[in-house]
Amino acid sequence: MLQALLAERFKLAVHRESKEQRVYLLRVGKKGSRLKQTEEPDDQEVQQVRGESPPAQIVPGGIRGRSMPAGVLAGALARVVGYQVVDRTGLTGTFDIDLRWTPEEDRGFGSDIFAAIQEQLGLELEPGKASVEMLVIDHAERVPTAD
């Protein structure tokens, strides 16, 4: 509905395309994953079966979530590290995540996010390249049309 409104009022035209881009690849570390599998189904897992992803709580210095698949964790990490994160763990199922690190402004008193991912989750973020789908704006008017 919003897309139709933008197309009508701003003459917005967009398309999607894939482009090779710098990303972080989320992989299982050398010592194996330390992710804690969710033990019993809850409402969030029922939502996942229907194709709805549970949200991750992202706070300064932490990501928390219950019944999160590795792909949702990758999406949350992308919001923190500033680059797309591609899940290459191969892990299935859902996990309870409580990842904590020292934010950059408080550096010197704890682990950065990369070290925390390795220490707490047994995963690694490594730089790489991957094809990422992007939304490209073909045209948009600066002033909307009148009602």
Care to describe what's here?
The chain has helices spanning 2-10, 43-49, 70-81, 113-121; strands spanning 13-28, 36-37, 57-59, 62-68, 85-87, 95-100, 123-139. By secondary structure, the chain is of the alpha+beta class. The chain has one domain. The strands form two sheets. The chain has a four-stranded antiparallel β-sheet with strand order 2-6-4-3. Strand 3 and strand 4 form a beta hairpin. It is elongated and about 60 Å long.
Quickly list its features.
single chain, 147 residues, alpha+beta, 4-stranded antiparallel beta sheet
Sheet/helix structural class: alpha+beta
In the residues, how many domains can be counted? 1
> How far apart are the termini?
16 Å
Roughly how many Å is the radius of gyration?
A: 19 Å
Strand numbers in spatial order across the main sheet: 2-6-4-3
- Kindly report the average pLDDT value: 88
Major sheet attributes: 4 strands, antiparallel
Count of strand segments: 7
Condensed summary:
The mean pLDDT is 88.
Secondary structure elements and their pairing?
Elements: H1 2-10, E1 13-28, E2 36-37, H2 43-49, E3 57-59, E4 62-68, H3 70-81, E5 85-87, E6 95-100, H4 113-121, E7 123-139
Parallel strand pairs: 1-5
Antiparallel strand pairs: 1-7, 2-6, 3-4, 4-6
